[in-house]
Amino acid sequence: MIDTEELVVKPASPAVMATGVYAGMTLPDNGLPMLLLDAAGIATVAGLRFAPVAVNDSVEEVAVPGIPALLFDDLDGQRRAIALAVIDRVEPVPVDAIRRTAGAMRLTIGDTIIPVHAVGGFGDRTEIAVLRLTDGESEMAYAIADAIEIVELPAEMAAVRPGGPDAGTPIAGVVLIAGEQVEVVDPHALFAGEPVKIATPPVCLLQVDGSGWMETFLKPALEASGYRCVTALAAGETAAVALAMEDAPVYPTHAPVVTLRRSRVADGDEDASIYRYDRPALIAAIAARRGL
């Protein structure tokens, strides 16, 4: 059994103390004299020497990997970087495929039109490199002069001063890469400030009544809001929502149906139809039917 008790240590006889391995003697509670060993003395007799060791109490910092980014030269001559995760691919496109229409730059790729961000002119180029950017749901293009290399963004970033001369540009801050100041493009500002093209727009089934009103008036408004309108579903295709006029037959469909009326005023409190020219209410009703 291990226990504790108070001890009074006294020097042992000179002959015993001269050995250098005893600290003294004591008389415990059992009444039997006991010699106490001196650990330091034993080490000295054994020829052991202990050097003082400095203990480092500091916690070693774990290096946090930086964000991979693409370093590129922009059309205005500035060297910039953008997070690699937002880039779907880099590809050359004909300059003729980029046009300014409806007050914005747009790129035609096949049957698709996507917005383009460009900070400078194309000069006499016949082909321009673009970064195809995506957030997983929508996409846009960023025209550049030349892609340089993939780098790692440092943790320290100098912020852009609000209200400064560059406040309107999509720049998150400035970093040092290989001793050079590099502007970091802010993808959040890019997608927030540009009309983006939804990569896979939800399908809106128009149950037309033969008058041509849905195709002429309704379809452009819905497609401007991010829907793809069809009057008939292709094989294997499903609609996110269907629209029908209240005075026309509603054909069977698995999609939720939004009913449109010609009158401005609803026919009672239980009338859930939407006035066909009430655009905000129509878009809100479609989104609600889709469960958004």
CATH topology of the largest domain: OB fold (Dihydrolipoamide Acetyltransferase, E2P)
Name the structural class. Answer: mainly beta
How many domains would you count in the coordinates? 3
Architecture (CATH level 2) name of the largest domain = Beta Barrel
Q: CATH superfamily of the largest domain, called what?
A: CheA-289, Domain 4
Mean pLDDT: 84
Oligomer: single chain
The first-level CATH class name of the largest domain: Mainly Beta
What is the 3D form?
Answer: elongated
**What does the main sheet amount to?**
7 strands, mixed
Q: Name the helix and strand elements from N-terminus to C-terminus, one letter apiece.
A: HEEHEEEEEEEEEEEEHEEHEEEEH
Low-confidence spans: none
What is shown here, in short?
By secondary structure, the protein is mainly beta. It is 14% helix and 36% strand. It has helices at residues 14-17, 39-45, 187-193, 213-224, 279-289; strands at 22-26, 34-37, 67-73, 79-83, 87-94, 98-101, 104-109, 112-117, 127-134, 138-144, 146-153, 158-159, 171-177, 180-185, 197-198, 203-207, 228-230, 241-245, 257-261, 274-275.
